[in-house]
Amino acid sequence: MSILPRRWRLPYVALLTVVGLLLSASALQDYLQYGGRRPWEPFLWEFSSIAVIGALALGVHALVGGLRGRPWPQQLAGHALALPVFSVLHIAGMFGLRLLVYRWAGVEYHPDDVPTLLVFEGGKDAVSYISFCLISRGVWMAQAAERARLELAELRLARLADQVQPHFLFNTLNLISSVMYEDVPRADRLLCQLADLLRQTLAAQARSEHTVAEELALVRPFLDLMQARFGPERLVVQIDADAAARECRLPALLLLAPVENAVKHDVARHRGRVTVRVHAERVGERLRLSVSNHGDTPVPEAKTDPDGGLGLRNLRERLTARYGGAARVKFGPEGGGMRLDLDLPCAS
């Protein structure tokens, strides 16, 4: 069953079992009505067929996947050759299982002759084979659409990372340059923090998603660098997340752009102290994230983009691509600053 992902194996076996029980219950009624004396026989007949069909269906799925992308004449030729093989294997496997059980039970069993079986079972097998091909083609198409969606999300992620990285990289290098001759230990510490942040960011780019804990491990060094740039008296950092939220998974580098925007646009506008807070909590099966900032002193009203700029527009696109309508985004002013709220499904 290697063609079937591990998480689908138990549901697949359960589905075959349910189908077998339903067919057996129906066959049992007819069997008893016509004077049958061994109630286990209808179960043997139906489950022997279902067991073989279940295994062959996986082979049909693999065949449909292997023929995808080939010209239609080649696909039709492949199926024309596979259909009789499917029918012969079904008949041989089904009646082979029945003969083994009947022999073990000490009961005589006389199936119809081979030509009759090929005609009677062959017609049903043709219908089953065509049905499996149609279902399998739909499954392959759905998987292809999902891969395309993930690739698009990864491209958007790369674009977002490309936009974020140069900005804080240049600012941090300028900061290091300004202090390297006056405070060598501080410059060395900043270089180590920058190297660690870049290493983690590049590693995150190679993945489509990771845990909240891993995302905060990227946000923390970035804020440390920005705190070194503006000074702890101007930039106060608060990061808190409960243990359940830290285990949830989310698209990689999701929070870096909102945090970078909070520092770039709001700390520079305030003359006094500004607090940037990142909060994460799990509520039931939902993950709630927020990035907020507020200053101790009021600032003149400034024209702000209601969408939060390009970074947050990209964030909305990524969430739509990943979660569809299951993700909610709220962005707007709060207490003299700005606040971004994200409400996502929590996948552990």
Can you put this structure into words, describing what you see?
By secondary structure, this protein is α+β, with helices and mostly antiparallel strands. It has 2 domains: 6-111, no CATH class; 153-345, Heat Shock Protein 90 (2-Layer Sandwich), CATH 3.30.565.10. 66% of the residues lie in helices and 14% in strands. It has 9 helices and 7 strands. The chain has a 5-stranded mixed beta sheet with strand order 2-4-5-7-6. Strands 1-3 form a two-stranded antiparallel sheet. A hairpin with a 2-residue loop joins β4 (274-283) and β5 (286-295). α5 runs antiparallel to α6 (212-230). It is elongated, with a radius of gyration of 31 Å.
CATH fold assignment of the largest domain: Heat Shock Protein 90
CATH superfamily of the largest domain: Histidine kinase-like ATPase, C-terminal domain
**How many separate domains?**
2
Structural class: alpha+beta
CATH class of the largest domain: Alpha Beta
Q: What is the count of helical runs?
A: 9
What Rg, in angstroms, do the CA atoms define?
31 Å
Helices, strands, pairings?
Blueprint: H1 6-33, H2 40-67, H3 72-105, H4 114-179, H5 184-205, E1 209-211, H6 212-230, E2 235-241, H7 243-247, E3 249-251, H8 256-267, E4 274-283, E5 286-295, H9 309-323, E6 328-334, E7 337-345
Parallel strand pairs: 2-4
Antiparallel strand pairs: 1-3, 4-5, 5-7, 6-7
Keyword list:
single chain, 2 domains, 9 helices, two-stranded antiparallel ribbon, alpha+beta, 7 strands, 348 residues, elongated, Heat Shock Protein 90
